Amino acid sequence: MTPPSRSELRDHLIATKIAGDVATSRENNLDHYRSLAERDPYYQLGLTFAQPWGYRDVLALMAKSAGVSPDPAHRAGQDTIDPDRTIDALDEMGARIGAALAGGRPRLLFATGHPTGLLTVHLSLARFAVRHGAKLLTPGEGWAYSPAYHGRRTRRVRYLDGVAMLDDHGGFVHTHDSAPMEAMLGSLNGERPDLVIADHGWAGAAGEAGHPTVGFADCNDPALFLGEAEGKIAVAVPLDDNVLPRYYRPLTAYLVSRVTQAL
After folding, report:
1. Four-CA torsion 25, 121, 165, 81, nearest 10 degrees
2. Is the pLDDT confidence value at 152 over 90?
3. What does pTM read for this prediction?
4. Residue 70 phi/psi, 5° resolution?
5. What is the CATH number of the domain that holds 121?
6. Of 148, 153, 220, 240, which has the fewest beta carbons less than 10 angstroms from its beta carbon?
7. CB count in 10 Å sphere of residue 43
8. Range of the structural domain that residue 89 is part of
9. What is the structure's pLDDT at 245?
10. pLDDT above 80 (res 34)
């Protein structure tokens, strides 16, 4: 599709609730911020932090990076993502991906924990990257484990057109876990990715391991934004990460146009 202008994309983000007044509640956001401040591993998404990052610190950073309400007294109801922050981060992500592609046959690694939402964005980016000479790394395919918080059901790493996801008995599933990416990176045999494009624990684990990483993150997933603040994540794009897949088409077209400009 024809890429939207910035103002057209901004209107679209608000209309589809990818940004603006989002579906994620204020209660859910603050609960996750507290859990991360308490260093619950589930909410760290594979990252560790040098700074103490108390609850108020996490809230302040999320107000700055994602555009949630900065008011600690606002404890319930609606919360927001600033669409201009989303677009600014898309611009930066596009520049990073474009710079990698301009370097000549880069090694890229794609992964998503949102097969019902963000997968469509990752697939489009991966196909675009291949057309422009990228090599997509697919380490660890078939690696399996049984996470305790999902009833110890066996899950495996599988790829669809070069995008890693978790498979659970024939279906791709939502995950925040960093263990799959940690295993994938451990099986690279020295073939280091030039850039990782991911979300959730896939992005967190890559950034923690020192790989250049750009990622998407919802306003209730603050870890990638803390990782960005500490220099482990190059770009974290704030957005609702689970709206209808077709709603991401204009965003994807805009992002691809920014990648193209950087080539």
Report:
1. -20
2. no
3. 0.96
4. -80, -5
5. 3.40.50
6. 148
7. 21
8. 1-263
9. 97
10. yes
